[in-house]
Write a structure and sequence with these properties.
Length: 456
């Protein structure tokens, strides 16, 4: 597997395999203009997107205007950085001024915000060209990406399979080469799950590292803005733009890091072939078998329990009036989840918040003796669109719970995590997840870049 993720033959747009550094050099070398990049993105979207449904709105006029302005500034010697003139997609639950922002729901089918979310504003100030809004699972409340007012997003590797969610459109757009960068959100794995299923990089920073101002909430204490790109180095470049206060340079040597394997077994259903393939790739990339972080297994049940209590309670608080007043406007599956969420009692929510602090302290102590935790991003092979159950070893298993089982606890703890592609199984991508201590985002991304290079 090459360092630049291979793209499925049926979905190879202009940006497939092109890094931000390469695009920036081409722009500054006069080999391409920002307007030409935008036109190429628009052309690819017109050809590729009808079979993927990665976008809910394409802002042709605004994008061309922004690209022309980016070219003008460069011609005058004003260089705004690596994102200057780069086409970017924005998930449809992130406010984007003058562009429909629907949250994937009929509740907001005609809503156009007047102001940008903080993260969108930062991208625009850096010269980024906001070209489109990307499809989301309704209200970002689901990991499958096939439950939206605008319909399902299809996986670029196999159109019959799901792209994952909830940042399905952002991942599919990057995986198909229609865009080099897209923003998503991640409350339980919504950036990392679709990144793993489509063979790209999905980065969830430390909680609070990126502002969620202007992002429609799902669960306020679990929500993160995330970044989807082709390489960890590109994710680091975007992160540096969005979080300029974070240290920009972090040089580490992968061989000198203390790496620990987190066994997926205590977290629920897993496909042995997936786990074996990810472990084999890691063993090859690291040149050794990783020791296990055995203590995590003992904390898994409580982590998942309190995560569920917090997320359900916070999600219902946001949607209580909509559930009571206009339930018919929800996708039936999302409505069912919200109605089930109101069962969490107040004392359970308060207690869960307290227990989270205790568990966060335990992980802080764990990271005093190790640098990175590693595990698969998703424990099963890519499900088909609309599948909600699957059979494994004669058992009936839940697709939604299994997709979330290895990603959601890192939202609970607020730790930075990234999914990188680690090969194929039966022609579909697999993801390896790296997790670091709070605030060690740059180290995490640098290590991920080295690990991906070593595994190539």
């Amino acid at each position: 597997m090459s360092l630049i993720t291979p793209i499925a033959p049926l979905a190879g747009g202009y940006f497939s395999g092109k890094t931000l550094v390469q695009l920036a050099e081409a722009l500054r070398g006069g080999r391409v203009s920002a307007l030409e990049l935008t036109e190429q993105a628009l052309a690819d979207i017109a050809i590729i997107n009808p079979s993927l449904n990665a976008f809910t709105y394409v802002a042709e006029k605004q994008a061309r205007h922004s690209a022309a302005e980016a070219d003008r500034l460069l011609a005058e010697g004003q260089d705004l950085g690596i994102l200057h003139g780069i086409p970017i997609g924005i998930k449809d639950n992130i406010m984007t001024a003058g562009m429909p922002t629907t949250m994937g729901s009929a509740h907001f089918r005609d809503w156009v915000p007047e102001q940008d979310a903080s993260c969108v504003g930062a991208l625009k100030r850096a010269g980024g060209v906001i070209i489109a809004k990307t499809t989301t699972h309704e209200f970002a409340y689901g990991p499958t990406g096939d439950c939206s007012f605008q319909g399902a997003t299809h996986n670029p590797w196999d159109r019959s399979k799901m792209a994952g969610g909830s940042s399905c459109g952002s991942a599919a757009a990057v995986a198909a080469g229609m865009l080099p960068v897209a923003l998503g959100t991640d409350t339980g794995g919504s950036v990392r799950i679709p990144a793993a299923l489509t063979g790209v990089v999905g980065f969830k920073p430390s909680y609070g590292a990126l502002s969620t101002e202007g992002v429609f909430p799902l669960s306020r204490s679990l929500d993160h803005v995330g970044i989807i790109t082709g390489t960890p180095a590109d994710a680091a470049a975007v992160f540096a733009v969005l979080a300029p206060a974070v240290e920009k340079q972090c040089q580490v040597e992968l061989d000198g890091l203390n790496l620990r394997w987190v066994s997926p077994e205590p977290f629920g259903t897993q496909d042995p072939l997936v786990i074996a393939a990810v472990k084999a790739w890691l063993g090859s990339a690291c040149g050794r078998e990783l020791p296990a972080a055995e203590e995590v297994a003992g904390w898994s049940a409580e982590l998942q329990q309190i995560l569920g209590q917090i997320q359900k309670s916070e999600a219902y608080e946001i949607h209580a009036e909509r559930v009571a007043g206009h339930p018919e406007l929800f996708q039936p599956e999302v409505l069912q989840r919200l109605r089930a969420s109101r069962e969490v009692r107040g004392w359970e929510y308060v207690r869960a918040r307290e227990r989270r602090e205790t568990l966060s302290h335990r992980f802080a102590q764990l990271f005093e003796t190790c640098d990175l935790l590693l595990m698969p991003t998703v424990a099963i092979r890519t499900p088909h669109l609309y599948d909600r159950k699957f059979y494994l070893d004669g058992r009936v298993c839940e697709v939604r719970d299994t997709l979330l089982s290895l990603t959601s606890i890192w939202n609970l703890l607020g730790l930075p995590a990234v999914s990188i592609p680690c090969g194929l199984l039966n022609g579909m991508p697999l993801g390896c997840q790296l997790i670091a201590a709070q605030g060690r985002d740059r180290m995490l991304l640098d290590a991920a870049q080295q690990l991906l290079a070593a595994g190539s």
